[in-house]
Amino acid sequence: MTQQTTQTPRAVLAVEGARTARRHLTRRDVIARQLDAIAPGTARVRTVPVTIDRDGERRRVTWVTLDDALGQPVTADRAAHRAARGLLRRMLPDADWSRPLAYNAITGELADDEPEMPEELRA
Fold first, then answer.
1. From first to last of its 123 residues, what are the pLDDT tens digits of the chain?
2. Of 21, 84, 85, 110, whose Cβ has the fewest other Cβ atoms within 10 Å?
3. Does 16 fall in a domain?
């Protein structure tokens, strides 16, 4: 007896894709609203893990910047930066926070934020 594989009907795939898209949009909207409540105008959050030397002991901390839609820094205190980082860590638990990352609250995308060499210098 041979087993026959069946393909998932396209309609089922379409429904599952729509559900996934709705969840993504809902999460993006929730994060954007909460970021705006933490620091009004925030459209982008950048996190960079750094190592500091405090009292002779090396510690790993995360540097957080909050930018508006034009890329200008948002005026916020230390607690707001900490709250924005905590929000993203809770809402995006599968992300690798040991690397520099940038979250775009407009698109809902979390991307690597590694510096790159300008194309003109690559020769």
1. 567 667 778 887 787 888 877 888 899 999 999 999 999 999 999 999 999 898 889 999 999 999 999 999 999 999 999 999 999 999 999 999 999 999 999 999 999 988 777 788 776
2. 21
3. yes
Q: How far apart are alpha carbons 74 and 40 in whole angstroms?
A: 8
CA–CA separation, 22 vs 42, rounded Å? 23
pTM for the full model?
0.77
What's the Cα-to-Cα distance from 33 to each of 42, 75, 86, 109, rounded to whole Å? Answer: 10, 17, 15, 15
Q: Where are the beta strands (DSSP E) in 7-122?
A: 44-54, 57-67, 101-104, 109-112
**Cα 28 from Cα 58, distance rounded (Å):** 35
- Domain membership of residue 79 (yes or no) is yes
Domain with 62 in it: 12-114
Is residue 49 domain-resident? Answer: yes
